Structure formats: structure tokens, C-alpha cells
Amino acid sequence: MKILVLNPNTSATMSAEIDAAARAAAGPGTEILTTQPNFGSVAIDSAAESYLSAVGVMDIVAAQLASGTFDADAVVLAGFGEHGKDALQEMLEVPVLDITESAAHVAQLIGRRFSVVTTLARSIAPIEDRLLLAGLAAHCASVRACGLGTAELDADPAGAVKAIVAEAERAVMQDGADVICLGCAGMAGVTGAITDALGVPAVDGVAAAVGLAQMLVGLDLSTSKAGAYAPGPDNVRTYWPLSKALGL
Amino acid sequence: MKILVLNPNTSATMSAEIDAAARAAAGPGTEILTTQPNFGSVAIDSAAESYLSAVGVMDIVAAQLASGTFDADAVVLAGFGEHGKDALQEMLEVPVLDITESAAHVAQLIGRRFSVVTTLARSIAPIEDRLLLAGLAAHCASVRACGLGTAELDADPAGAVKAIVAEAERAVMQDGADVICLGCAGMAGVTGAITDALGVPAVDGVAAAVGLAQMLVGLDLSTSKAGAYAPGPDNVRTYWPLSKALGL
Amino acid sequence: MKILVLNPNTSATMSAEIDAAARAAAGPGTEILTTQPNFGSVAIDSAAESYLSAVGVMDIVAAQLASGTFDADAVVLAGFGEHGKDALQEMLEVPVLDITESAAHVAQLIGRRFSVVTTLARSIAPIEDRLLLAGLAAHCASVRACGLGTAELDADPAGAVKAIVAEAERAVMQDGADVICLGCAGMAGVTGAITDALGVPAVDGVAAAVGLAQMLVGLDLSTSKAGAYAPGPDNVRTYWPLSKALGL
Amino acid sequence: MKILVLNPNTSATMSAEIDAAARAAAGPGTEILTTQPNFGSVAIDSAAESYLSAVGVMDIVAAQLASGTFDADAVVLAGFGEHGKDALQEMLEVPVLDITESAAHVAQLIGRRFSVVTTLARSIAPIEDRLLLAGLAAHCASVRACGLGTAELDADPAGAVKAIVAEAERAVMQDGADVICLGCAGMAGVTGAITDALGVPAVDGVAAAVGLAQMLVGLDLSTSKAGAYAPGPDNVRTYWPLSKALGL
Amino acid sequence: MKILVLNPNTSATMSAEIDAAARAAAGPGTEILTTQPNFGSVAIDSAAESYLSAVGVMDIVAAQLASGTFDADAVVLAGFGEHGKDALQEMLEVPVLDITESAAHVAQLIGRRFSVVTTLARSIAPIEDRLLLAGLAAHCASVRACGLGTAELDADPAGAVKAIVAEAERAVMQDGADVICLGCAGMAGVTGAITDALGVPAVDGVAAAVGLAQMLVGLDLSTSKAGAYAPGPDNVRTYWPLSKALGL
Amino acid sequence: MKILVLNPNTSATMSAEIDAAARAAAGPGTEILTTQPNFGSVAIDSAAESYLSAVGVMDIVAAQLASGTFDADAVVLAGFGEHGKDALQEMLEVPVLDITESAAHVAQLIGRRFSVVTTLARSIAPIEDRLLLAGLAAHCASVRACGLGTAELDADPAGAVKAIVAEAERAVMQDGADVICLGCAGMAGVTGAITDALGVPAVDGVAAAVGLAQMLVGLDLSTSKAGAYAPGPDNVRTYWPLSKALGL
């Protein structure tokens, strides 16, 4: 099967990291296709950038649908805490998996209370919002931030792992978490470091989403079109898809 | 004071109706400036269009900020159930009022349980989501839809009023609402019709938001920049503002 | 317009402070009339005193209604955490604003999570109860007490401000509040001190209630009489209004 | 042991009915002393009357404490949905039982979901509020009203029983209740009629409160004075107790 | 009246302690009959042992019912946090009281927020689950563990009391509890020690359940058979009752 | 990989149906081993039978562990609404999937609100309890029963499908569900019938659990042993495993 993985930011480095994580999680016979928006922000650290990224991934899919080049059995939206999953579910017939929700679902299958460890403190609120709206907040012990932004994570990977493990330890000791969800995409080796140091399972959202996508495709299940995710009416839009209007 | 009212869709007709409602609610000395996105959808009936509209209103504000032409004491986002308020709060120092939340706040001040009556059934879920995230769901008796889309409302205003009043009556009789919030923007005369027919107050979100904007400006209060609405980091963005990249 | 402000305790000093706060918040053309019960308690620090104060403010209004001297476009109940708002809403056609709820509504418009800082620890429970019943608990980060009673606040205003700012800092740092509501009435200058020290907006309930009262009157909205706040049946009462029976 | 039963309204007929219900529930060796306020309302059908009744029962207890005539091992507040329990808990060392909460506690011990059937629809909201504040809402299937006021109940007892049983049947069939709480005080024979007709247990609040009072006294347990129910500070009050000031 | 007290583990020492606690709480004329399963675990410190204990107490009752020797007016299930109450309610016509729920009900009657202090940390989760399912979580401030297992409690009773009082103090000071529930069965003297040291009431579940059982029998109330606790269909079972199949 | 599927009742017919459903959902290379308890009930229609079934599946696993014959990469507990998953998680290192929770997780991935359609009305309460404890109740629109017991389902499969589809239709039309979970195990063809008739996806718990088990094994994730599911202390047990004591 083919899984289209959408990195919602415009960083090619991040896309490569997400692609590697997705490939590592994919089973035999699963093809991973990772891409990123044609416009937007190199990192997503605000509500504004989150909306921009949602339109960016919608634009990729709309352009593929318009040109008849969309060809995937499932789609993974690889932004932790970002908007856009419901829009993709409206636009597509195949399953759409979001890495925030996927990590939380998998965490609940293997533990009683999970915590999310993300990058900057300002990402806590949107992650809490996503979990609340997805009906996945009841067993969330906490959403915590290690205090390092994307640039810092890239500049000092070893230091970043240390900071994330330290925050995960607080989640386990102070908040009672028995599973940790990694609250960002594309960091290799962190889940292993958490488990080695703390003895708790750690869930990477990209891996979880790829695993769940394979599961849904295997069971021949896809998004219900009888409710919130039915396609919308055919309203007139201008400059859409934006990438085409921009000549990209 | 000046209030910038943002219609999130691209319909000039709707902008005119919203503008009229805002002017009717404004106090003496308040200037209303209503505008609409340079790209997007003529009506907002899906999650995809809601995200597109959020980026559309962000684009208006970003372009004004970039050109030094932003000049308002408060901003009203006039989409019922639409995304984008938090992004505008991040971008601006002045208060930002959303008509969904504004209607709900005002309803709670004058009643015990409110219902929202919106257009199409597919708008119920996003309105419920906005109220839940805003912490305003506890006294919401129901969100109901009259079943008529924007085009139908425009084509037969008298029939539309009748359908909305009928749905509001169900909210009062079956769900126990004692206040009705009108779940769309720009419909003149509907709140009066509801109150005349059912004897309950009816709240128009545009009027509520204008009133609350004036209140906040009068009390010299604005969005806290110490938490979720602090400005984000200065990430590199491409093709932003989109309207400038599009040459609009 | 005229706003009747009801201090629920019998302290003339407190009435004067509340009156000053209300006048400072009032717009041009708004007349503030502040009064206090004819019997009751000089401060309200218990459930018993809260009920007594509710009957005290009901008595003022009942006496004015009986004598035909009630003349206000809105009423503000200026007790933080005190009972009585719903009774006044039943008795009156004009809007009734409670300072606890008003502060919370305004806080939610300008922030994501608010904390209340009140006087004594024993006031925390009734404030939590008021917020829960009003459907305003979901975004309340905490209700905290500075540990000083009314007498101490009056005796050492500078020390009181310091204690309140210190407690507000804990709310911001430990509980994640980005807005502070001042949990008592009549303290001049505290909101400014909080904002200066902590960089977060601070909301005074009296100012919030006056602002919201003006907003409702401006929008021609008042309490719904179709539900919980309909006038009750005409039951026989003895010694009512109590102040008349007492010969006051 | 002696149990002081406080009817919060001024109806001697109602006091007699409550007294009979309490006596019927009392064990051997339990003495029931029923009384009513010296001022207030003959029936309690509004928030205003509920506050007045709270002050009325506080006044009885304050006068007894002041004169040294208080002599009871427990107190029962016999108003369904009325305010005042917490004030009495502050004032007294002995246990205070409220019939609303007592009925709900007993119902949860013998069933999975209970409904309350009260008199007028306007009593539903305050009963819901009492249950929510008492932490007893989670297993409440519904609060329903039979539509008859106190006067009507008295005028046609047989018709009243029929109406209450019919409403209880809706609670069982439509809301899934397996226990019914009688939402008013002083009606003989109704619980038996409900059980006979519907095969579900029915709980009378007065009986439940007397039973729980005996239980607490038997276990030598009383209200915690270490938290919300500690006595308040010794604030100056005027015209208190009101009955003394009124010369009653 | 006769109360059958079921210790869910197989420790005769524990049964004796529970029996003593039940007798101390029983009124004149109440006969206490304490027993324990014929198979199972000597202590219950896991979900597995909790299910085994539920079947153990079901087996006792089933065997008595089969042999016609069941003779009790009420049953008390004396395991704190253990499963089984609903099964016994299905099997029996007389009231069944669980000590976890009984302690919580009594605590809510005498305080605003209660904490449970149990033995090992691993018992916290099942106690939280029982309270949540029973609709008794809203006023639970915390469930805490003193860190000592059953064997340690028995080996050093004085040290155990000290550890429990220390944990109860944290519940009062840090979590705001004003009542403590003792989260295990059969420890003499601990409730007195808590009250002496901290000035808050402490509730022993066995005493609470015996008191509530007497109350229900006194009011002639028992489990509703119209809902969840109706007897199940007559399905074929093998090796049931297990004790008979085991030849015990 | 090998998946051990545990039918919690003693019906060989049901085991065969569950086995077929599991095999149909298994991927290539997955071996399904289905078994059932050595004692217990032929169907599970009460809390008592649910506890008995939990001990029955524990007994299977304990006997395999004791004899060194346990050989599976994951375990599926195939009882809808039954107890026991947490006990198996304590006992085992490999992942344990429960069909109730698995169905709900999968439903949330493909829809906004799901309903469960089960057999008898008395199964509704335990299913609601499982979902609440698992933190999966927020998006559950309803749990409904078709009114047919296991025997009736077996006797008239065509009629059973019709009744289940009719109840599912009520869930969609009245409760707003856009996904249906089949609330029992072992019924072939029902999910297809629901989707054909109503146009909504239908989830079979056995298939969902097998799919999720394969996903977890594929991602090398298993139950956290750092919290609630750590193995319990080594308490003395008598007659355990029961099947060995029974000579089975």
C-alpha cells in the first residue's frame, strides 16, 4: 500500500526526518511518500502558522486531486498539535491519520495515563486543544515542554535528547504517566532514550500513525462520510489551489 | 474608536450585511470598518473553508501591519464557528472578538441555558468545537440547524426567518433554552422575529462582539500577551502575505 | 443610563470604594447609584453572611419596587462570590450583573486561563461554587487567597497590594494563568499593580460588571423571563420587606 | 437522640406533614423536634424565597444558640432544593443533613441512576444546582416536574399522587432511572404509590435525612471544622438575629 | 437485624479485624456475621486478585443461596477498591454495601472534599476507578498511598499509624481535604489517630457500611431490581459454585 | 506472529465464530489461536458472569504460564463489555487488547461520534462503564441494545441482523453517530449489512483488536510495566489456578 505523509512545514530537513521515521515504521509492502507544502512556514510555533500549514497541506492534496495525481491508500498528517486533519478527511476517501491523535490512541492501548513532551511551552495549549476535541484528554496526565525550539533541537541533538528525557521523567514521577508521547515529529532515537532511561514505553506519533494507517487499510475501513466529514457543498473559491494561483 | 470587522468569506453581499449589523450595534463615536479576504471561499461550509478563511483574515491583518495601515482599536471576526481568532490575538495588540464566543458570553449574562440556531447541519460540529474550546459549553443547551444554506437564506429571506424561528422554538421547548444565539452572521431582523414569536431574548453575534469590543476598549483591557497569545517566534515564511505574493 | 450598584455588606467605607470603582469604569452619560443593605454584616466571610447579604440586597430592591422608587437601567451586585444574583434577576426586568461572573467573562475574552485572587482561604470554596454554577469553571486555572481579611486590607493597603501581587504571581507561574481576576470589591490600584509587576491583564469585577451592564443596555438586551428567571408565584410572605417590618 | 427538623417555609401544615414523615422514619429512642421560621414565605418557589428561607432557618438556630436553648444531636433541613445547609454547618457542631442531598445519597446506594420528581418546572434548576454543587450529579438521570404547585398538591392529594407517579414513569422509561427521589417534602404515601405502580424504590428526602442523621450520630461523626465549614470570623452584624430585632 | 460482612481475601486475621470493626459500629440488636472466601488470595494487591476476590465472595453467597442458609438483612463487602458489589446486588434482594462507596458517601455528608489514604501506590488506580464509576469522584480531593503493604501494616502497627497520619496530613495541607477516608479495612485505632493529630474527621469504611446498612434496613429500602441490578438470565454455568466443585 | 484470542464464555460455538472473525482480520503471517475458559458461563449477561469470565481467562493464562506453554505475541480478550483486560495486562509482557476498547479506538479514527449496538439492554451499563474507565466516553454518542439475547441471535441470524441494523439506524438518525461499533463478538456479516443499509462504517471489535495487536507488535510496543499494570506482589493464593485445583 502507499501512504502519503504530509509534513505541514516547509523544512526539507524535517521532511527527510519524518520520511525516515515513517519508513522505519512501515511494514513490508508499504510505500512511503513524504512531501511538504509549497508555501508557508519553516516551523510551526503559533496558531497562525498552524492555520497556514493546514491550508498548505490542503493545497497539496487539492492540487493532486485536480491533476489526477493523488495516489495513496492512506494519508498521515505529520504535525504534532497542528490543524488540518478534519479538512483532509472531508477532501479524501482514504483514511487520514493525525500524529497527535495517533500517538494518544496507541499510548492508551499500552498504559493507563500518558504524557506528551513537546518542544516549546507555547505548543502546550494547541496540543491540549487537539486532545480535548479528539476526546482523548481523559487519560492525558500532562502536556509538558522541554523548552527547546526546533532550531535548538537540530543544533544540539544530544542535548535535546537529554532535555526531553528529563522532562519525561517529571511526567512519570510528578504526573503519574506510565507512557510518554513524543510531542514533535522527526526526532530519531528519542523514544529509545526515554525507554532506556525511565523504563516506560515511548510513542512516536509518525510511527503510530503509519501503524494505524496500515491497520485501517488492512481492515478495509475508512473515514465515515455520513457525518462531519462528508464533502462540503461546491462553493465558489478564488485563487484555489493557492499553489496554482501562485504559479508554483 | 475604530473597530475592524472581518467577514471571513469573500461575499461582498455578506460583508454589507455584517457591516450593517455592526453599525446598528455600535455606540456613538464608534467607527465600523468592514472588509473581507482577498482570496478564499464565497461561503464557509466545511473545515477546509474554515481554515482557508482563517488564513484569509490573517492575510488582511498581516498586509495591513506590513504596510503600516492597520488602524483599529479592536477587531471583530465575524464568522460563526470559524477558525482564526487565536491567530489574530497572537498578531495584534488590540482586543479580538469572535462572534461565536461573543454571542455565548452575552447569552450567559441574560439567561441560564442558551441554544445556537445555525444554517446547515454540517455547521453544528464546528460550533460545538468552538464552544468547547472556549470553555462555554456547560450552559449550551443545544446547537441546532434550520437546514437552509446561505444561498437559500438569501433567496427567500421570509422563509428563512420562519425556518429559524421554528428551530428556535424546538430549542426552547425541547432543550430548555431560555436564550437563542443566531448562529450565522448578517441576517437582519431575525433576532426580533425570534423574540416576538417565542418571548425569549435572541443574540446576534455581530452585535454582541461589537458591544463587547466597545466594553473592553472602554475598560482599557486587551489580550494577554503572557500566555497562549504571545507573538510567535520569527520563523521564515514563504509567499506571505499570500495576497502580496498573488499580486493582489 | 443609571446603574444601581449594590454593595452586599453594611460597610459604608466599602460602599464608597465600590462606588469609586464603578464611577471610574462608567462611560459618559452613565450615572452610578451605590447603596448597601439596611441590615446584615459589615463583611461577608461565611455562607451564613452570604445568605444574609442576598436577603439584604433583595430587601433594598423589594423596598424600592414597593415604593415605586426603583429607577435603574441595570443592577450590579458587587459581592465577589456572594449569593443573590438569580433572586434579583427574578425580581427585575433590567439586566443584573454579578461581579464574580462579570470578571470571569471579561477574563475569558482576553486570555486563555484566568485565576482569581481573593482575601481569605475560606472564600475560595464559594467562589469556585459560583463559577461552576455559572458554567465558567472550565478556563479557571485556580482560585487563590492572599490570606488577608477585609480589616487587614484596610489597615495596610500597601502590604495588601504586595500580598495580592505575590499570590497572583503564583497563579501565573504555577497554575498557568494569563489573566488575573481580583477576587474582592473596592480595592483601588491593585489591578494596575498586578499588571505592572507581572505583565498580565488584571480584571476588577466592579469595572467588568459596569462595562457589561452598559453593553447590555446598549444592545437593548435583558434577562430572559422564559426560564429560570421568570418571576415566582405570588406566595404569602410575612415581615417582608424586612427593613419595613423593622421600621427602617 | 434528638433531631431538630427545620421546615424552611412558614406553613404550619407543611411542618406537620414533615414532622409526621420524620417521626415515621425515626428509630426507637429518637426524638423529632420540628419547627419553622418566624418570617419568610409560606412556600418556596423562587431563588428569592430560597434565600429568605435560608436566613429563616439560620435565624431559628442563631436564636436558640443565643438563648442557650439549642438542644439537638443532629439537624435536618427539610427543603428540597433550598439553600442554607452550608450556613447551618458553619454555625453548628452537630451534623446537618439536607433532604436533597440525603435523598440522592440513599438513591445511589440502592440503584444505578436516580431521577428526582418535583412540583413545578421552575424548581428543576435549583435542584440541579444543589446536586451539582454536592458532587451528586453524575448518576442523576433527570430532574422532572409534575407541574403541580404546593396548593394544588394540598387541594387534590389523589390527583397529585397520580401526576407524580406518571412523571416518575417517564423518568424510568425515558431517562433510565431505577430509583425515584421525591422532590418535595411532606407528602405521605407517595413513595409507596411509586413503588407499587412502577416496581422501583422511591426515596423520601425527610426519611433519608433522618436515617442518615441517626447513622452519623451512631458513628459519632460530625461536620469537619477544618475546611469550608469552619465558623466564620466574628464580623459585626446589625439586626441579628432578625426575629429578635423584629420582637418575635 | 443480621449483617453478613464479607472479607474478600482469605486472611483469617483480617477477617477478625474487620469483624471487630463491624461489631464496634453496629447498633444494639444488630448481629454481625463475618466470613471470607474458600479460595483466592491472602491479600488483594492487583486487578487479578480483585477479580478473584469478587468471584470468591460471589461463591460464598451462591453457596448459601443454594443450600438455603443465606440469612442476612444486609451484606457488607469489606474490600477497599475491590470489585464485586454489583454482582452481589444482582444476586440478592437485601441491600449490599461496599466499603469504598460507603466511606465516600459518609465523607461527603460531613465535609466538602475528602481524600482516601490507602496502602500501596498500586491501589490508587482501582480506588479512583471505583469512585468514578460510583459517581463519587467530584468531591474526592485525592487518593494517596502511605507506601506500606498489608504485611508491613501488621508487622509494625505503630509505624503504620504514623505513616498513614503523615500521608493524611499531606492530603489536608496540599490537596485541601477536610475529611479522610481510611483506604483499607481492619485497622483499629487509625481513624482516632488521624482526628487527634489533624483535627479532621476520619471515616472507616467498615463502620460506614455497617451504619448505612442499618439505615437502609431501618427505612425498609433495598436494591432496585428494575435496572442494572436485575437478576441475569439463567445461563448454563459449569463448576459453579466453585467451592462445591472443589469439594470445599 | 501468534495472537491468542480468549473467548471469555464457555460456548464452543461462540469460540468458533470469534476464531473465524479473527482469522478474517489477520494479516499474512499472523497465526490465530482461539480458546475459552475451563469453567464459567456459556454466555455473559450479568456482572457476576463478567467477573467469573475474567477469572476464567486469567486461569487460562496462569495455567499456560505455569506450564511454560504460553506462546503468543499478543492477546485479544474477545468479550464486549467484560472485565479482565487489566488483570491480563498485569500478568503478561505482551500487548493485551480488549475488543470493547479496540472498537472504540478504531471508530474514533474514522468518525466523529460512534454508537455501540449490543444485544440485551442489561449490557448497556457495563459497556458504558468500560468506555468511561478507558477514557473513551467523550465521543460515544450512545450505547444501544437490539433486545435480542445470544440464543435468539443464534436461532434467527437473519432476524438478528435486521434488528441490529434497525437499532444502528436509530443511533445514526437520533444520536448523531457516524460510525457503529458492533457490541458483541462473533457475528459474521453484520458490519457489512450495517454499512450497506446506512452508509456508515461499522467496526467489529474482534477485527479491530486483531488489527491493533498486529500494529503494536509491528511497532515493538507493549504494555507499560511502570504503573498500574506492573505485576502484583507475590501473595499466597489457594486453589490457583482453579482449573488445576479442579483437576481439569
How would you describe this structure to a colleague?
The structure is a homohexamer of 248-residue chains. Chain A has 248 residues and is α/β, with parallel strands linked by helices. Chain A has two domains: 137 residues, Rossmann fold; 106 residues, Rossmann fold. The first copy, chain A, is built from ten helices and ten strands. In chain A, the strands form two sheets. Chain A has a four-stranded parallel beta sheet with strand order 2-1-4-5, with helices on both faces. In chain A, helix 1 crosses helix 9, helix 2 runs parallel beside helix 3 and helix 7 crosses helix 8. The radius of gyration of chain A is 17 Å and the shape is globular. At the A-F interface, helix 4 and helix 9 of A face helix 4 and helix 9 of F. Strand 3 of chain A pairs antiparallel with strand 10 of chain B.
